[in-house]
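Recap from last week: sequence in, structure out.
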Amino acid sequence: MKPSATATPGSAAKFIVCSALGLIMFFVTITINGKSTIPLDHLTNWVRSVLGPSQKYIVLLAIAAGAALPFIKGTWNRSRQDRIFSFCKLIGLLCAAMFVFGWGPAELHTNKNLFPFLFTVLCSSLCFLIPIAAVFLSFLTDYGLMEFVAIFLQSVMRKIWKTPGRSAIDAVASFVGSYSLALLITDRLYREGKYTTKEAFIIATGFSTVSTTFMVVVAKTLQLMPYWNFYFWTTLVITFIVTAIVVRLYPTAHVTEAYADGVTPQPEEVITGNRLSRAWQEALLASSASGNIGANVWRSTREGLHMVCNILPTIMSIGLFGMLMALYTPLFNWLGYIFYPFTAMMQVPDALVVAQALATSIAEMFLPAAFVVKAAIAARYVVAVVCISELLFFSALIPCILSTTIPVSIPKLLVLWVERTILSIILAGAVALFFF
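Predicted structure tokens:
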């Protein structure tokens, strides 16, 4: 057992106050000027209203930075995957410039599901929401709240998800932080011998969801902010239930349980005794070691800015490609028939439209939202949940997973995507039947 932290007024106060601020900003709904939403959303809307028309140039600048970074850092040609995505980012910059300056075919500008949706609805929202959320994200992640919560999850992680108790921190990191942060944690622990290959595979493909910040964007797009807490917590529960099921199916069930080559296995300590007392001590340890609040906020903000620059160009390029495929080819209509029996079985309104919309999630997790903005609330809820809990998409998460040392193949990821989407439809559909 780790040594006890000293319960000084400073470390205890930092844990309580900072964690409370993070919880308030992300989870407490307040009403301002007749609009009920979380403080983070209110703050983002205020910043965007102050910036007015100039915000599109800030978005364009962020996209330009994201397109240039791989070439500035010399990472664009490290692998075929890096070359492909670096090229996609350049295409994304071109698309953003076309929208801002009115270049190119009129259809791209007049069709509300193309440039207007990708740039104005998605990129503009993310460009300001993610950095502002990052300012407050450190209050959720750096001062002991994650460690406090994780202690209570440890007793069930192995039994339900077949992963060590420490993987609870990875799961929480994804929901309150980002999949990129969680994947960094997972890959590092795998290389240190603290996860087996199977455990790392489960964590990377089962817990690495988009963050709370992205969920806010989805909820705003589909007009679900009045139901924010209901949407957030049901999505979290559904995502974890889906993961508990797929770990017992192919391909996850067949992944080797050996450790990575050349590492010394380091199984985790089994925690016994009073969990509340241990959780408090772990929280104080984290709070005591957290360092300067200003430095933590700056680090978190810097990571948020880097994420914005990384994801916006791919949304404009891969997102546009996915939208064009969805609007002008039958590909996703065909793929949608895989999911149609399940949306119909769960009595989701516009079942075929929802199924075909969800088929686009493999390209970009935001795309399904574009096709159901005007749908019934039950349909919007199902899409909002499934596009989070299906988890895997080519514009960001899949490249991140493939860039780790964890052995993962694209065919296995595609099988997992189908499994997770079907299970998510069934569970979200059941919730929608009772609630809406």
